[in-house]
Design brief:
The complex is a heterodimer of chains A (about 375) and B (about 140).
Chain A lengths: L5 H4 L3 E8 L2 H6 L7 H16 L8 E5 L4 H7 L7 E5 L5 H15 L4 E9 H4 L12 H4 L6 H16 L7 H11 L13 H6 L2 E4 L1 E2 L8 E10 H4 L7 E10 L12 H15 L8 E4 L5 H9 L8 H4 L18 H4 L6 H12 L12 E6 L3 E8 L2
Parallel strand pairs in A: 2-3, 2-4, 9-10
Antiparallel strand pairs in A: 1-7, 1-8, 4-7, 5-6, 8-11, 10-11
Helix pairs in contact in A: 12-13
Chain B lengths: L14 H8 L4 E5 L22 E5 L3 E10 L13 E8 L4 E4 L14 E8 L5 E7 L2
Antiparallel strand pairs in B: 1-2, 3-4, 3-6, 4-5, 6-7
The chains are: A alpha/beta (about 375), B mainly beta (about 140).
């Protein structure tokens, strides 16, 4: 058998259903019945409705962050599945879970796969740092903890190497917030001014409050199927045209090239496989657990040179109406922290023309970039 | 007053690292086949060439500040009184990087690539933690 390549995979698998939750409403209320499973079921039901599929047409179940696939499968009454598994609740896993679902379909192991993510971080008081949060014992003796501080180290080094200043990051936080103002489901929608950004407290300096992702409750479900089946369903198919992963695994989350070389390898692979180029990308979602990763992702993917990203993001270039709108739903700092899944949902809605007031006109090609210890890039398209 | 911050958690593999520190020596494993020196010392083989011929090499204790952050958020009750406190990512002269902190140095003085040298903080009778100060 000849080894298959990314070219063979091009446009073979589609996103046909997307469901999520009202993040703002969930943020403003508490409910003791709310947990990762109940949130996941809500998104799963919404995704089925969106796709026009019956529950029993799902034959693969890929969960992320929701700990037990067995418990979840029982909750939604899916007994005889052709695949079921859970991925860890890490942001880098969203693209990987989508890739796994796509491979299940492309290989013939499954026909229609639901990827379900649930997060009750606000209800349970998640902190992403401190005692018992998985920090290295070699680090905690100095009080070092949290991915945010690891990214703060990288941003400090980036500023040193390229002459960027702390206020350059404000453009990313302010652009995200501007987009969230156009998104009825976003948690934080009021405009963010430069003054408010700069006077906010530091968390791990040089990063401030508005550089950090939210901690909120919510869920996202994505349903994927093969391209032929997709054409008969309720909504126009969104093609997973190309996708690639490259790890950057070292002992530390802080890496000396800011994940750019790994992102670059992913971007080169998806551009080559799709036959598309930078000029074709109309909207881009970048995994912004902390605002510097937007700059690292843009440089890695080749939208600008290394060291130019902090200038690239200024003056509205990454806002709606700009040259390359980025994180058009408000991203992780303003819409919701669904660890990459909200960003996938946003690309699907942009490509379908369902993004309402934040719609990129006639959007046909979208990109997802995750700069993290496992980097990934997708190109998603519509016909 | 008792030391309340997190202490090292020696394992069967890295116990010598902490024992050398207690004697005020900074040592890391060095591969006797390819010469690679690595951190953390949590392996019984060289991660570069996979050889298991390792020796504990005494390091110069010199390095530079690759980067640094200041914690304003309280993540650990035992660090609450230190806020805002500095964590520095140190690039050792021999190559490896490790998280640490800076002493004998005001926050306004810290710069990336600033040359530093190790100092040994005997936090308890059992444990010594390596910290760094500017080379003046």
């Amino acid at each position: 058998m000849t080894q298959t390549t990314l070219h063979d995979f091009k446009d073979k698998v589609c996103f046909v259903g997307v469901g999520d939750t009202d993040y703002g409403a969930l943020y403003r209320t508490k409910d003791p019945k709310r947990n990762q499973y109940t949130l996941g079921v809500e998104a799963f039901k919404a995704a089925l409705e969106d796709a026009g599929l019956k529950k029993d047409e799902i034959d693969g179940l890929v969960l992320v962050r929701i700990p037990s696939y067995q418990l979840f499968a029982d909750m939604v009454g899916l007994r005889y599945l052709k695949a079921a598994n859970t991925f860890r609740g890490e942001g880098r896993m969203s693209a990987l879970a989508v890739q796994y679902a796509a491979m299940l379909i492309y290989s013939g192991l499954c026909s229609t796969v639901a990827v379900v993510y649930g997060n009750d971080g606000r209800s349970v008081g998640a902190t992403y740092g401190g005692e018992g949060e998985g920090s290295s014992p070699y680090d905690v003796i100095y009080g070092m903890t949290s991915p945010g501080a690891a990214v703060a180290h990288m941003w400090r080094r980036y500023m040193h190497e390229y002459g960027a200043r702390e206020e350059h990051l404000a453009a990313v936080a302010i652009s995200n917030r501007r987009h969230a103002g156009l998104n009825p489901k976003a948690v934080f929608r009021e405009p963010l001014t430069l003054e408010t950004y700069l006077t906010a407290r530091y968390i791990a300096a040089p990063l401030r409050l508005y550089d950090y992702c939210l901690i909120n409750d919510g869920a996202v479900a994505l349903i994927l199927t093969g391209a032929e089946r997709a054409r008969d369903l309720r909504k126009p198919p969104v093609y997973l045209t190309a996708t690639a992963t490259c790890t950057d695994l070292t002992f530390f989350y802080t890496v000396d090239d800011f994940f750019r070389d790994a992102v670059r390898r992913c971007a080169e692979a998806v551009f080559a496989a799709s036959g598309l180029g930078h000029k074709d990308i109309q909207v881009c979602q970048i995994y912004d657990n902390f605002t510097p990763t937007v700059i690292f992702g843009l440089e890695g993917a080749g939208f600008c040179k290394y060291g130019e990203g902090f200038e690239f993001v200024q003056n509205g270039r990454i806002s709606l109406g700009g040259e390359l709108p980025v994180n058009t739903s408000g991203g992780h700092t303003s819409e919701s922290y669904m660890q990459g899944f909200g960003l996938h949902a946003e690309n699907i809605r942009q490509l379908r023309g369902e993004a309402g007031d934040r719609q990129v006109p006639n959007c046909q090609v979208a990109m997802y970039i995750c700069p993290a210890p496992i980097c990934a890039v997708h190109i998603m398209t519509r016909r | 007053m008792a030391y309340e911050k997190p202490l090292p958690q020696p394992t069967a593999i890295d116990a010598p690292y902490w024992e050398y520190l207690r004697r005020h020596e900074l040592r890391l494993p060095r591969c006797q086949d390819c010469g690679h020196i690595f951190f953390p010392p949590n392996k019984v083989h060289c991660p570069r060439c996979l050889s298991d011929r390792l020796e504990w090499e005494k390091l110069s204790g010199r390095g530079r500040v690759w980067s640094w952050v200041v914690f304003h958020q309280r993540y650990f009750a035992s660090f609450a009184n230190d806020i805002p406190y500095v964590v520095a990512f140190i690039q050792l002269e021999e190559g490896p990087r490790l998280m640490s902190t800076l002493v004998e140095c005001g926050r306004d003085e810290i710069r990336c690539d600033m040359p530093v040298e190790v100092v040994y903080d005997d936090v308890t009778p059992e444990f010594t933690i390596p910290k760094f100060r500017p080379i003046r």
